[in-house]
Design a protein that fits this description.
2 copies of one chain form a homodimer. Chain A is an all-alpha fold. Chain A has 10 helices and no strands. Chain A folds into 2 domains: 40 residues, Orthogonal Bundle (Arc Repressor Mutant, subunit A); 148 residues, Orthogonal Bundle (Tetracycline Repressor, domain 2). In chain A, α5 runs antiparallel to α7. Chain A binds a DNA duplex through loops.
Chain lengths: 230, 230
DNA sequence: CCATTCTACCGTACTTAGTACGATTCGGCT
DNA sequence: AGCCGAATCGTACTAAGTACGGTAGAATGG
């Protein structure tokens, strides 16, 4: 019965790419918890069971969108000729920004043990830069472990950052709305008051500072002075 | 009808502490996905709805067990008199070990924005050590952000580490069982072959190396030479 | 041009999970 | 003994993952 609108004509046909891309959009819009087979199917204009013809199960979707996030990190000017230090810095910022755009990806990283191609390319590229900068195999292993840890950990800090709104907790005992309990955590309170809660403070700036400190130390440690970078 | 065994006599009475402690055990035993209200209740020897009289909802349970993990980090010799560097190192190792024992906690960190008391004590203590070591407020902020990022990020790397079993993938095109595709990722392959996959290699050693490098750089950066530590 | 077959999509239904709501039980008080 | 509040439980509703089988339209072969 060819009566009424034909929905299949206007639908761009389901593919694995479309499924994963849409899944990423849903996760970005409402958090990873809002990404369900049903919400995804609705967004795709399709019935739930249809997506199972393009992905094995939900785990595969999660693997897929994590790899999409890594793929996003590759979308920045490569500049393979620049100093190794600049290359590393650019990559680190690209990684941080991707994880900031998709904070749910951080929580997924821990449970995923089968890296996708973009994830592997990401690792490969970091190692390549360091090796071509003259680092030994051992030193490259140390440096990449250190750098990856810092970048990834910083993203976690940023995602979990509770400051900014003093939270919605009605402050149990006293009626003060101080962001931190000054008596129980004096140093934390001092830090918050004198540094973090200042008007122009941006936690993101700690990223460049930490990165510079690490890169400076790596440079010293590996090249012992002969090969001045920045 | 007082016939049969009286189950309430032998049960130690439910409390918030018992609920959270048991939730942590369940998560440790079967992963965070296996922690459901029902599995938790079964482990407690109680019906599902009973736990809701001690915690608001599942989110509160997750908040609670994350804080328990942080509390676990406090169970190490304090030695508040030692050199600041040693204190930081001990704390870092305690943190890493706690996150290794409870890898699911890492994935939870990202989504939790209301830190518990143990979490706050943990922050407070790090800041205290640095401040009492003579770091300025600003430098302490930089140092603690850097250190926390590294420790936390390292834990993520460790949890997500795919190496060790070459995975169960039947290697798509070629029949080789090489852990990494040598042609597509030459540097990664070299690194794996010449370093990671060596008999005595332990990724955990990268932790101490990275930590030492960071602490050395912090020391230099902050004290400019006058206050030689280790 | 029709029959077969393959693929993509869908309908139904089963299972598990979170939890609202009200009933019930129990320990301690007067 | 009788009462009260807190702890526990029974029932049931909703949502999510997905197994299983059906169907319709495109591709293929005669």
């Amino acid at each position: 019965m060819p009566v009424g609108s034909d929905p299949t004509a206007t639908r761009p046909r389901l593919t694995r790419e479309r499924v994963l891309g849409c899944a990423l959009d849903v996760a970005d819009a409402g958090g990873i918890a809002s990404l369900t087979i049903r919400s995804l199917a609705a967004e795709l204009g399709v019935k739930p069971m249809s997506v199972y013809h393009h992905v094995a199960n939900k785990e595969a979707i999660l693997d897929g969108i994590v790899d999409l996030v890594f793929a996003e990190m590759e979308l920045f000017p490569r500049d393979a000729d620049g100093a190794w230090r600049d290359q590393i810095v650019r990559r680190a910022h690209a990684t941080r920004h991707a994880l900031r755009r998709h904070p749910w990806a951080i929580g997924l990283l821990e449970s995923r043990s089968t890296p996708g191609p973009a994830t592997l390319r990401h690792q490969e590229e970091t190692i390549r830069i360091l090796r071509e900068a003259g680092f030994s195999v051992e030193m490259t292993a140390h440096a990449s472990a250190l750098l990856d840890s810092f970048v990834c950990g910083f993203a976690v800090q940023e995602a979990a950052r509770p400051f900014g709104v003093t939270s919605t907790r009605p402050s149990d005992e006293r009626g003060d709305s101080s962001p931190v309990d000054t008596e129980a955590y004096p140093h934390l309170a001092e830090m918050a008051e004198k540094h973090m809660l200042r008007p122009g403070y941006d936690f993101g700036e700690e990223f460049q500072l930490g990165l510079d400190l690490i890169l400076g130390a790596l440079n010293r440690s590996a090249h012992a002075g002969h090969l001045a970078p920045s």
